[in-house]
From TrEMBL:
Catalytic reaction list: a quinone + NADH + 5 H(+)(in) = a quinol + NAD(+) + 4 H(+)(out)
Function comment: NDH-1 shuttles electrons from NADH, via FMN and iron-sulfur (Fe-S) centers, to quinones in the respiratory chain. The immediate electron acceptor for the enzyme in this species is believed to be ubiquinone. Couples the redox reaction to proton translocation (for every two electrons transferred, four hydrogen ions are translocated across the cytoplasmic membrane), and thus conserves the redox energy in a proton gradient.
Compartments (UniProt record): Cell membrane; Membrane
Stretches the record annotates as Disordered: 132-151
Bilayer-spanning residue ranges: 6-29, 60-83, 89-110
Pfam families recorded: Oxidored_q4
GO molecular function: NADH dehydrogenase (quinone) (non-electrogenic) activity; NADH dehydrogenase (ubiquinone) activity; quinone binding
Protein name in UniProt: NADH-quinone oxidoreductase subunit A
Source organism of this protein record: Pseudohongiella nitratireducens
Biased composition (Basic and acidic residues): 141-151
Bilayer disposition of the protein: Multi-pass membrane protein
Keyword annotations from UniProtKB, A to Z: Cell membrane, Membrane, NAD, Quinone, Translocase, Transmembrane, Transmembrane helix, Transport, Ubiquinone
Length: 151
């Protein structure tokens, strides 16, 4: 069994020639002048202010990871939907189990508070806004007047 590799070799040589030509032309024809602001970063013509290194809450990373996980699972469901006729009822049962596992994971994340972005201060404000009946009021209730204690 022989495989002709010459088309792959020719393609690779053409790609390397194009990349080399582009790099060579940009270095020859590119700007040679160096100003004071040449190496300064900017975005949309606006010079950056402040430091780029700042702390971000772990909730942002957690949300990003959860998005990636659920996005990949959606891709699996799309591929199942394409082959739904070939998969038959067994494939449907497998997809149903997959969705139930996803829902169980989502319920677990909700119960553990992984989807709650509020800070401790915001949670305290929410507790102060809820009345004993569970109705949310616009201004905090003074529980000292009613003799009840806030949880």
């Amino acid at each position: 069994m022989s495989i002709d590799l010459w088309p792959l070799i020719v393609y690779t040589m053409i790609v390397l020639l194009v990349v080399g030509t582009m790099l060579g032309l940009s270095s020859v024809l590119g700007q040679k002048r160096r100003d004071r602001a040449t190496n300064e970063p900017y975005e949309s013509g606006i010079v950056s202010v402040g430091d780029a290194h700042f702390r971000i809450s772990v909730h942002f990373y957690l949300t990003a990871i959860l998005f990636i996980i659920f996005d990949l699972e959606a891709v699996f469901l799309f591929t199942w939907a394409i082959a739904v006729r070939e998969a038959g009822w067994l494939g449907f049962a497998e997809a149903l189990i997959f969705i139930l596992i996803l829902l169980a994971g989502l319920v677990y994340l909700y119960k553990t508070g992984a989807l709650d972005w509020r800070t401790d201060r915001q949670r305290g404000r929410q507790v102060a806004l809820k009345s004993p009946g569970g109705v949310v009021n616009r201004k905090p209730i003074n529980h000292e007047d009613s003799g009840e204690t806030a949880l």
